[in-house]
Write a structure and sequence with these properties.
heterodimer, A: about 210 residues, mainly alpha, B: about 160 residues, 2 domains, 6 helices, about 0% strand
């Protein structure tokens, strides 16, 4: 029975973690105040979802497992050649280029989360976050500036500043990768005839029409 | 359980995500409280809740994996069965020496389409379809659609399907 069983399917945990992390990245990148309690908690939530997804990559369903999309530059090159030759090979999980993107996104996100946790735990934003969660949002901004000033000239501020730098650079890298990821999905959707986004929403990829 | 496996799987996955997020929140909060006021009853409670949540994540994850594996197996069985059914039909249609048109009509009839639907699909008159179907019944040695269908079901149920998995 070729066809039906060979198309990629994403199980519900893959889809929920994907969209959950996407929402968290958008929220913390564009909407929430940097260093605010909301920003910190969304970051922790994203970290939790990433942890779940990584565990699932070890023990989850077939197409969710790392073994279904090993990071292989050689396969990626082959995939680029397929693209250039306008041939299409079905992959049951991510295509090789997509797989590299997935690992890059995870790595960037892991660095963002880890540096965020480091900042929070070292108290750069932590005490403020606790305090702010008990106050109104109007106080929050003042508090934020106050907290930064308070801890900016404290002990170990050089290390703190470096972590902050890492956090910012990794976050910007994450946005760049996310933009590339969206562009890649759009490109691949056009190339193979759609269904990629639908697959991540409903879990099923519709069989391609003959036209392709 | 009226809920379909698919919806159950989605629900469990959502619970896994929520539990994981909640576990991290409790752990982070416990660490903060410990720094601020040391160990006390409040902290112990938070710790117990965090452990319970982590255990819940693991158990639900395993449950989800089982559920999805079951769903996959069921789907493979149906695919194998429908493949076997298709092969069996072709075999019987040849045995009965149905014409191409009769085989088409027989297949659509077995799929449960009405005479009118079949006529519309084949752009033929309902009378033609009815006549073709009667010839199919005659060749197969039955006198109704149900009897025709039961010929195949009998064959398929005679022995369990051997699935190549």
């Amino acid at each position: 029975m070729p066809g039906a069983s060979s198309t990629a399917r994403w199980d519900p945990l893959v889809r929920l973690t994907h969209w959950g992390i996407a929402a968290a990245v958008v929220a913390n990148g564009l909407l929430s105040e940097e260093g605010s309690a909301v920003h910190v908690w969304i970051g922790y939530a994203a970290g939790a979802l990433l942890a779940v997804r990584l565990l699932w990559g070890g023990v989850g369903t077939r197409s969710a497992r790392f073994s279904s999309f090993p990071p292989s530059p050689r396969a990626a090159v082959r995939h680029i050649r397929d693209m250039a030759a306008r041939t299409h090979v079905e992959h049951r999980s991510h295509n090789p280029l997509g797989a590299l993107m997935v690992y890059a996104l995870w790595a960037a996100l892991a660095v963002v989360v880890a540096s965020g946790i480091a900042m929070d735990q070292s108290g750069a934003v932590g005490r403020h976050a606790v305090a702010a969660s008990e106050r109104s949002t109007e106080d929050e901004e003042l508090e934020s500036e106050h907290a930064e000033a308070e801890h900016g000239d404290g002990e170990g501020s050089a290390a703190g500043e470096m972590i902050e730098e890492v956090h910012e650079i990794a976050a910007n890298l994450l946005f760049l990768l996310a933009a590339l990821h969206v562009a890649g999905v759009a490109f691949e959707s056009r190339r193979v005839g759609g269904g990629l986004v639908g697959a991540m929403i409903t879990g099923r990829r519709k069989p391609r029409s003959a036209g392709g | 359980m009226a809920r379909s496996p698919k919806r159950r799987a989605t629900l469990i996955a959502a619970i896994v995500c929520l539990q994981a997020v909640a576990a991290v929140f409790f752990i982070v909060d416990a660490v903060r409280d410990f720094r601020e006021s040391g160990a006390d009853l409040h902290l112990v409670i938070e710790f117990v809740i965090a452990v319970a949540l982590v255990v819940g994540v693991i158990l639900n994850g395993l449950e989800l994996r089982e559920l999805l594996a079951d769903a996959r197996r069921a789907e493979a069985t149906i695919q194998a069965a429908s493949g076997a059914m298709g092969e069996l039909m072709q075999l019987r249609f040849r045995e009965w020496s149905l014409t191409a048109a009769e085989a088409d009509v027989a297949l659509l009839a077995l799929k449960g389409l009405t005479i009118e639907d079949i006529a519309r699909l084949r752009q033929a008159a309902a009378g033609t379809v009815r006549a073709q179907l009667t010839r199919v019944y005659a060749k197969a040695g039955v006198n109704s659609r149900t009897a025709l269908l039961s010929l195949f079901v009998d064959d398929l149920l005679a022995e369990p399907l051997h699935l190549a998995d």
